[in-house]
Amino acid sequence: MSTWNIDTAARELLAAETERRDRGRLTDEWPELDLDTAYAVQSRLIELRAERGETVIGVKLGLTSEAKQRRMGVDAPLIAVLTDAMVLEPGAKVPLDSLIHPRIEPEIAFVMREELAGPGVTAESALSAVATVHSAFEVIDSRFRDFSFALPDVVADNASASWFIIGSEGIAPDQIDLVGETVELSVRDDVVDTATGAAIQGHPAEALALAANELGRRGERIPAGAIVLAGAMTDAVPLEPDVPVTAAYSTLGSLTVVGT
Ligand code: OOG
Hints:
There is one protein chain. The chain is α+β, with helices and mostly antiparallel strands. The protein has a single domain (6-257), classed as Fumarylacetoacetase-like, C-terminal domain (Fumarylacetoacetate hydrolase, domain 2), CATH 3.90.850. 25% of the residues lie in helices and 27% in strands. It has 7 helices and 12 strands. The strands form 2 sheets. Strands 1, 2, 3, 4, 5, 6, 9 and 10 form an 8-stranded mixed beta sheet that branches. A 4-stranded antiparallel beta sheet has the order 8-7-11-12, with no helix packed on it. Helix 1 packs across helix 3. The protein is globular and about 50 Å long. Bound molecules: 2-oxoadipic acid (OOG). Residues 62-63, 68, 72, 105, 138, 140, 142, 147, 154, 159-160, 231-232 line the site of 2-oxoadipic acid. The site of 2-oxoadipic acid has 14 residues, from helix 4 and strand 5.
């Protein structure tokens, strides 16, 4: 019998994060870890975070772009949970000494005006529940060695969530062409990648609808005021001490993050 269950797996992933220790895939040690069980581990992990005082403030999508799916070798998107302990204000430095092997990726974020509950949510109905659209960076820090995981591993690990930064200027959703919105990712002054909003499921609002429908399937909803990260537009780049990483968007402005 496996030594793993929902509680022990959640505690192990939280301990790996706290102790800044990477580990092998859980699915190697616990082959029965299927997707539903992995989401139960993720929920338990969030319960443990709540026990230490964290509050859930939103949802993140992962692996919603082909660039990410190809790089990570996982061909399906997933959802995970954002808490208030993961927020960094624009301009704040990312504390690298508490992280394992941080990488950073540009995203589009939504702040919800109205609650959104699946099933049956479309990109259009999802967008009509959005208050503002923002630039965003997510710092990911998989608890799995070399970011090597199968879908159930990364789901259990809350989609490698670590820190995120939302641009302070929000734009109304009818004031932006989300599909055509471009981002240029630079490390120091070198452009290393570019993408458009189309990279995210064809339309970033499709990712939002996907999250609402997946949560609806479980009887959960995205509340008004929640933040939703739609998933990385490009592949992630390593975040190194004192090396600025910038995401310059066509409409959403520019965000720069530095690790220290
Ligand atoms: C998994 C999380 C991916 C995204 O936005 O695609 C993710 C990983 O790459 O470690 O957050």
